[in-house]
Automatic annotation (TrEMBL):
Its main location: membrane. Keywords: Cell membrane, Membrane, Transmembrane, Transmembrane helix. This is DedA family protein. It comes from Sphingomonas mollis. The chain crosses the membrane at residues 12-30, 50-71, 140-160, 172-193. It is a multi-pass membrane protein. It is found in: Cell membrane. InterPro entries: DedA_domain, VTT_dom. Residues 30-159 form the VTT domain.
Amino acid sequence: MTQFIVEWIARGGYLGIALLMALENIVPPIPSEVIMGLGGMAVARGRMQLGWLILAGTVGTVAGNYFWYWVGRRFGYQGLRPFVARWGRWLTVEWEDVERITRFFHDRGGWVVFVFRFMPTFRTMVSLPAGMSAMPRWRFLIATAGGSAIWNTILAGAGLYLDQRFEELDRYVGPAAVALTVAIVLFYIYRVVTWQPREQRD
């Protein structure tokens, strides 16, 4: 099963990796850990080159994050509120989430953009307050690209290591990868179906 998934990833090529990583940062629930991890396995099997894989993944990550930076900069802090109110269900984001991370961003400074590229949560949504606070575009792009390149290298390296050392466990890894992806998709659907604005819950 793992071989089939890796072949499917490799068949899409580097453009496919970039598109998947961009979508991962715009619309959940495809996790970067799965995309780059399977890409690393494709490298181990001679289907992709590690350097190009990391470059493609980083370009996609920057593109996806820049979308949210542009949204934040285009609409501003208060201007973003109707957008979140309208599309929050599909993004599984509440206005309180935006307020919380915006306060944290202003308290900690621009280095948060770089550091949050390694965080399992708010890795993408930190781009919103960066845009809303009018962080210089060049600084945002450099921080995003630098942090994303390191994170993608770690993920791809993990996939490469896993494939080289534990290929005999293929019959276990494949079903586990499928089960994880299905679980993430189901969780996202659950979040969309059950999500309510805070004012409706109070």
